[in-house]
Inverse folding.
């Protein structure tokens, strides 16, 4: 008999294991560790210079002035108008009342976009340790209380009896005392920041004022 011609390939047993994998060389992990340590050390050593911090603080004061400046100027105008009218210039009472109303509204977030923008202001990283965020919150509180003080001025001028006038004046003096206290706290933080950075220049103006007794 003749044997059958084999048409199928010969049987080859399959391997028991899976696909072979290439192992990452150990030197790769060592290199990555060195790079990570280097980045960490660089981040620790990269601290802003004193001159850079002083420059950043000057920029911060400029930003505060941009945010609170129009409110502070309005309060100053109201104080002048109040002093003139209570000093005897009653012909300008209506003008003074308009000044109080405008100045008071300009110290609110709803009416002052610059103040609204400052309410979400973020201090730069180089100044993060100087407690300036606390001063910023106090500046916003100062603006709110400036509105109240100007409303108190309006109440004095519109008082119809001596007793009502005396009560309104007492309320005004209390409000102004609160403003002065806030101003002192803000300036204390700013003074410490200036001392820490060696910065020069003046603070953003937050008016302080003693009203006439009459």
């Amino acid at each position: 008999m003749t044997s059958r011609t084999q048409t199928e390939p010969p049987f080859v047993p399959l391997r028991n294991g899976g696909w072979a994998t290439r192992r990452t060389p150990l030197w790769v992990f060592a290199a990555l560790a060195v790079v990570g340590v280097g980045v960490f050390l660089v981040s620790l050593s990269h601290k802003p210079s004193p001159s850079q911090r002083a420059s950043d603080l000057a920029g911060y004061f400029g930003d505060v002035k941009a945010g609170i400046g129009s409110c502070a100027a309005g309060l100053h105008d109201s104080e002048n108008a109040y002093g003139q009218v209570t000093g005897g210039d009653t012909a300008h009472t209506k003008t003074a009342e308009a000044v109080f109303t405008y100045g008071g509204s300009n110290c609110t977030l709803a009416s002052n976009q610059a103040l609204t923008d400052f309410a979400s202001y973020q201090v730069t990283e180089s100044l993060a340790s100087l407690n300036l965020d606390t001063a910023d919150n106090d500046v916003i509180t100062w603006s709110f209380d400036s509105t109240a003080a100007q409303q108190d001025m309006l109440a004095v001028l519109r008082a119809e009896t001596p007793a009502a006038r005396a009560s309104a004046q007492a309320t005004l003096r209390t409000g102004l005392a609160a403003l002065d206290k806030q101003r002192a706290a803000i300036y204390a933080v700013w003074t410490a920041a200036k001392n820490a950075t060696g910065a020069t220049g003046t603070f953003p103006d937050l008016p302080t004022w003693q009203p006439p007794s009459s």
Remarks:
- The helical segments are 26-45, 50-86, 93-105, 113-119, 132-158, 162-197.
- DSSP finds six helices and no strands in the chain.
- Confidence is low (pLDDT under 50) at residues 37-45.
- The two ends are 140 Å apart (CA to CA).
